[in-house]
Structure formats: C-alpha cells, structure tokens
Amino acid sequence: MFATRRRPLSPKTATLRTLLLCAALLCAATGTACSTAPRSAEAASPRMNPADTSPPKGMVLVPAGPFIMGTDRTDDGEAASHGLPYTFYSDATPQHKPELAAFYIDRNEMTNAEYLQFLNDTEIPLGTPYGWEADDRYPDGQGAYPVTGLNWYEAYLVCQYFGKRLPGEAEWEKAARGTDGRLYPWGNKFRAGVANVATTAQGGRLMPVGSFPEGASPYGVMDMVGNAWEWTRDWYTPYPGSTFVSDNYGKQFKVIRGNSFSAPGHFPDDELAAVIGEMSRANYRFSFNPKGRFRDSGVRCAKSVKVTASEQADSDAVDSALGKGK
User: Fold this and answer.
1) In the sheet where 297-298 sits, what is the strand order?
2) Could you tell me which of 175, 172, 176, 156 has the C-alpha nearest to residue 164?
3) Which residue from 121, 127, 102 is spatially nearest to 162, judged by alpha carbons?
C-alpha cells in the first residue's frame, strides 16, 4: 500500500510553472534576492510575518546571541588513516563565536507526508524521493519517516513553500549544540544509542522522526544527528581566519550537516564506531553537490523571527511561481 499523489497539472501548465520556479531557484542559488511586483499589505503572505516570538507549530525558538562554532582541533591524519578523502576537523577551524539573530527551526526533519502535501498542492514535476514509487507514492506506514533523496533545490523550494527557508550553517550548528560548546546535541561523549546512525558496515535504515528523544539538542530539536543528512543554505567555504585549503571550497558544493543512518564505508565494527563518532559531531562539516540526490539527504526548515527584505522577496518569488494566492 502507498500514499499517492493526485493527478498532475497539464504539460503546458507544468512547463510554465517549472520555468518560473527555475528563475526563483536561480536567485536562491546565486544568493540574489528575487524581485517581484510590489504587493499590498493585505496581499502579503502572513506566513512570513510573525508578530511575536511564539514558535510556529512544529518549530522551536533558538534565541538571539553568540555561540561557540567550529573547533581549534586540526586533523593529524585521522581521516586519512581510515582511508577517507576528507577531513574530520580542519575545515571547521578556527573556533569562533558568531552572533546570530533569533530564529525558529523545525523540531523534526521534514516527513514523507509533508512532502506529499507540497507535491499535491503545487503539482509540479520534481524528482522522486528515495523509496517512493515513480508516480510519487511513498510506502504505506512511512508518512512519519523523513523524506530523503532530495537535491538542494528541492529542499530549498519545499521550505519556501511552507513559509520557511533552509537554515544557515551557523544556525544549524547552534540549534544542534546550544551555547555551551558541547560536541554533540546531548553532551560531549558520543553515544550511538541515542541517534539513528550506522552501527554496522551495512548501515541502518530510516526511522520515524523523533524516535530518539534522548538525542535531542538543548533546544529540544530532534534527530540533529542521524536519520538523514540535512541541507543548509550555505556554500562550502572556509571560515573567517581559516588557513585550511580545499579544492571543494567555493560555489560548487553546499554544506550538509548531521550524519545519517548510512555507513561511510566498509569498516570493522570498532573502526566504524570511531568514524561515526567523528562524523556525528555537531561541528562536523560535509558537502554535497546541490544537484545531487542521495538516499540519505533530507531537509529541516528554519524561519527568521524578524524576516528580512531579501527573505520576503524570495518568498514572494516562489509564491508567484506556484500561483499561490490566486
């Protein structure tokens, strides 16, 4: 049994809508606010205009202020010793204290049921999520599982549709570790049993969101480690003051955070535990091609308490492309 998407738009309408969405996504990918026709106060989207700091349904508030981001530890060949072509620490240097405005973040990763709602409401042709049938059906009983197999552009679009946005990398890390500098959402020691991460070389499987309450972050955010990797809005670039050099820096890969149920390679169990422990740190950085779809790439949305003009412009552009409010 599968939950099924309703009949799509006509090819002509779908093509036009897709072209408009491509323009909006191009603005997002280049970091340029999308200009749209002025809208009256009555026509403005109320979902982007919070009146107070009470969290919207399903979200939690992360207060304004500084937090400890990154690390001062550098790799001494740890990743290379496991045959891995990336770094565990050096791209997250130096440790610094960014000042963030208050924001909301989803308590849980986006689910299959929520993504199906988005597809049904917009009726636009997008890639098929991991584990779904080709005609946009997810397996019966998996509505509360995180939707995965989304590329960055799809993740961006679905967040915008729900009146939200992708979190910045710094926002994601603060929501995961709080302000006391802890290494994991639950403390400073890795505990495999409080997150849905791989414990064998074959990896694990997705679980319903919120299945590991002991692994919640200081703000009560669930599954910040494990289940699915989560896209952020930021390009993979060096931190201010970093001396680490990477060919992957620049506007070619997006930062993705949080580890997943998948195993990163075929390791003996004790070696796998060490690797998973490193990749599960709240300050661990990883990057994916924004066009890529991976079986364990998911999405969690955020929302500014005080919406900026550029965020409103992006929201308006997506609303216009989707024909919302008409």
Assistant:
1) 286-288, 254-257, 229-235, 297-298
2) 156
3) 121
In terms of Cα–Cα distance, which of 192, 26, 231 is closest to 110? 231
pLDDT tens digits, 195-230: 999 987 777 899 999 999 999 999 999 999 999 999
Q: Report how far apart, in Å, the C-alpha atoms of 287 and of each of 119, 176, 250 are.
A: 26, 18, 11
Beta strands in 90-136 (DSSP E): 99-100, 103-106
Tell me the whole-structure pTM to 2 decimals.
Answer: 0.86
Write down the domain spans for the chain: 67-307
Q: What is the pLDDT of residues 70-86, one digit of tens each?
A: 999 998 888 988 988 88
Answer whether residue 104 shows pLDDT above 90: yes
Residues 6+ apart with CB under 8 A from 129: 112, 115, 138, 147, 148, 149, 150
Classify each residue of 228-258 as buried b or exposed e, where b means 16 or more C-beta atoms within 10 Å of its C-beta.
bbbbbbbbbbbbeebebebeebeeebbbbbb
Residue 16 scores a pLDDT above 70: no
Where do runs of H (alpha helix) occur along 4-149? 11-30, 78-81, 112-122
Strands 297-298 and 229-235, sheet pairing: parallel
Q: Is CATH 3.90.1580.10 what the domain over 67-307 is classified as, yes or no?
A: yes
Confidence of residue 124 (pLDDT cuts 50, 70, 90): confident
